[in-house]
Amino acid sequence: MKFDSQGIARVGLLSALGVVAIWIVPRVTLFDGKIYFHLGETIILTSSVLLGRWGGAFVGGVSSALADMLLGFPVWMPFSFVIHGVEGFLAGNIANGAGGIRDVAGMALGVAFMITGYAVAVYFMYGAAAVYLEILGDSVQGLLGIVTAYPFTRFLLKRFPGLKSDY
Fold first, then answer.
1. For position 36, what pLDDT does the model report?
2. Is residue 132 part of a domain?
3. Measured between alpha carbons, how far is 132 from 119 in angstroms, rounded to an integer?
4. What total number of domains does the chain contain?
């Protein structure tokens, strides 16, 4: 893995965009705001396809952890860093940016890990009753992420063919 100045700029830009997508874009909150879902999934999955496994892991982990800090949920930072980081890694490991089943399968695997990871975290933090709502919210978030990230990624790669990197 070689990070050049363009790669570092891409990772940084997409990380910042991920924070904005989580922090500013309207979120749906549950349990007095302790559980929420957002549109940051779109950026995490797009980054995974565009930047590969390590770039996707960095964008997923860092952007979601920073957004948790900015939103006032520092207890979630380590969970988000690991869960979204692994999600980005898994999605980027399978997706190749050519469109089709590999990109969708990579995104779906990443989302499945995200749903499972947060279900486990919520179980330990809030108990079994909260898990069902978490799975529902994360399923909607993940599906919305895939449905928006796939065409967004295709558009970006068609408009900017040199944007795909493997970090």
1. 63
2. yes
3. 8
4. 1
The pTM of this model reads 0.91
Note whether 39 and 145 are within 8 A (CB): yes
Kindly state whether residue 90 falls inside one of the protein's structural domains.
Answer: yes
Q: What six digits make up the tokens of 146? A: 């895939």
CA distances to 38, 50, 103, 150 from 143, rounded to whole Å, are 11, 19, 14, 11
Mean pLDDT of successive 10-residue stretches along the chain, which has 167 residues: 78 92 71 67 96 95 95 93 98 93 97 98 94 89 94 94 79
Six-digit token string for 72: 């006032």
**Amino acid identity, position 155:** F
Full residue range of the structural domain in which residue 117 is found: 5-23+35-154
Q: Which residues pair with 107 in a beta bridge?
A: none
- The whole-angstrom separation of Cα 53 and Cα 87 is 9
Tell me whether residue 160 is in a domain: no
